Amino acid sequence: MNSTTLLDRSYKSFPPAASACPINEIGARHWNILAGDLPFPIALLRESALSHNIAWMQEFARARGLDFAPHGKTTMSPELYRRQIDAGAWGISFATVYQLSFGAAAGLTRALIPNQIVCDADLDGLAMLLRDFPALRVWFLVDSIAQIGLIESWKAKRHSPVIFDCLLEIGIAGKRSGCRTLDEARAVAVAIHASPALRLGGIECYEGSVAQGESEHDRREVDALMSRVADAAVACDRSAFFGNEEVLLTAGGSALFDLVADGLKLRLSKPVRGILRSGCYITHDHGSYMNLLHKVEERQHFASSLLPAIEVWAMAQSRPEPGLAILTCGKRDISHDLDLPIALFHCARGKTAPQAIPDGWKLTALNDQHAYLRFPEQDPGPAVGDLIGLGVSHPCTTFDKWRWLPIINDNYDVIDAVVTRF
Questions:
Q1: How far does Cα 298 stand from its chain's mean position?
Q2: Does 378 lie in the same domain as 260?
Q3: Can you give the residue range of the structural domain that contains 18?
Q4: Listed residues 278, 293, 314: the one ending a domain
Q5: How far apart are the first and last CA of the chain?
Q6: Do residue 220 and residue 318 come from a single domain?
C-alpha cells in the first residue's frame, strides 16, 4: 500500500489553490467539510461507521466459523484493503485481473476472482502477477469446457508452466454465469481435472441475483442454490477432483450473506474453508442495501448491524424558482443506477452543525453536473451557498466516480483519506 500517494489539484474536489499533500499527512491540514475548506461536490467516508462496519462483518463471519474475502471491486482502494486484512480478512475478491493487480501491489497474498478469465491478455497478466508476487495465490472461476479450451490453448501458445487455481461455478437459471445442472458441473469438473492448465480448488456461487427483499422467497431460492453447490462439492470430492489440501466453498454478496452461511460448512474428505465475499458492507448505504439489510436484521434478530459510512455533499448553487434548488452534484459524482440519491442533511452557510433534512425536501432528478432538490413552494428551502448532504443507494457506483475520498470524524473534520484505482 502506497501511503505516500500525493494528492493535488488533479484530484476532483481537492482544493485547487492548496499545495499538494501526501495522503498520510492530510489530517494535518485541519480541513473541515462544512467550513468550506474543500470544494463541492465531495464524497466522503465517516470514520466511526467505517470502523464499525469492518469489525461487524468480520465478527459475523468469525462467529459462524467462516472466513472473509470482501469484494475489493466495491472500493478499489488499497488503503481500505489494508484495513480489511488487518481486521482479519482471509483475502480480497476482485472481478478482473486489472483489479487484482492493485491488490497484489498492495501486498495481498490471497485473492479470489469470482469471474471467468477467458482472454489471452488477462491470462498473460495473471501469469505475470503470479511470477512477480511469488507469495500470491489466486483462484478464478471456470464454468464451461469452452473456457477450459481457451486456457489450454493459451498455455500451449505461451509454452507456460503455470497451473492456474480455479473454482467451479454453480449458477442460477436465467441469471449470470455458472453451471446450471449437476451433470454440466460434473462434466466441467472432469475437464478441469484432466487439464494440464488448471487445478480445482473448490466451488463458488453468487446468490445476490435472486434477492427480492422478501425473506421467504429469498430463503427458498438460496437454499435451492446451496443444495446444488453441496451436490457438486460432494461429487467432486468423491471423484478426488480437488487438487489442494483444503476445499474452498465461497458465496455471499451484500444482501443475502446470512442465508448462505450454513451452506459453506460442508463435511468432505478434505478440510473445507467457507468464505463469504460481501463488499458493499464496508460503507453500506442509505437506500437499496439499507432496505435489504433490514431483512437480514429481522431474520437474525439483530437490534442493529451496519451503518451508512458514505455521503456526498453538495452546495445549493441556484434557486431559479419557488420550490426548487439546483445543487452542485450530478451523475458524474454520485450513484443513480438503482435509485436517486437521498437528501439527508442541511447545513446553512456559516454553520458547522448539519440538521436533518426537513420533511418534503426530496431529490427528484440528476443531470451530468446538477441535482434537482424539490420542496414545498411555501417552504423557504436552502439558500444559495447552503450545503446539502446526500446519501447513496449502491456505494459501488459512487466510489468509481472518485479518485480519492476524505475520511472524516463525526464533526466533519478531515482526519485521513483513501485513493481509488478504477
A1: 23
A2: no
A3: 6-46+306-419
A4: 278
A5: 16
A6: no
Give Cα separations from 117 to 88, 152, 154, 230 (angstroms): 28, 12, 12, 24
Cell of 376: 414545498
pLDDT digit string (tens) for 308-351?
A: 999 999 999 999 999 999 999 999 999 999 999 999 999 999 99
Read off the pLDDT of each residue in 275-290 and give the average, rounded to a whole number. 95
Contact yes or no for 417/407 (Cβ under 8 A) = yes
3-state secondary structure of 80: helix
Q: Are 328 and 40 in contact (CB under 8 A)?
A: yes
Percent with pLDDT over 70 in the chain:
99
Same-domain status, 223 and 168: yes
Nearest-Å Rg of the Cα atoms of the chain is 23
Is 93 within the bounds of a domain? no
At 3 the pLDDT is 62
3-class secondary-structure state, position 321: strand
Read off the pLDDT of residues 130-180 as tens digits, 9 standing for 90 and up: 999 999 999 999 999 999 999 999 999 999 999 999 999 999 999 999 999
Residues in the chain: 422
Q: Are residue 409 and residue 367 in the same domain, yes or no? A: yes
- Asked, for residue 82, whether it belongs to a domain, the answer is no
Number of domains composing the chain: 2
Cα–Cα distance, 10 to 415 (Å, whole number): 20
Is residue 2 very low, low, confident or very high in pLDDT (cuts 50, 70, 90)? very low
User: Residues with Cβ < 8 Å from 157, sequence gap 6 or more?
Assistant: 120
CA–CA gap between residue 110 and residue 120 (Å, rounded): 22
- Whole-model pTM: value is 0.95
Mean per-residue pLDDT, 66-87? 97
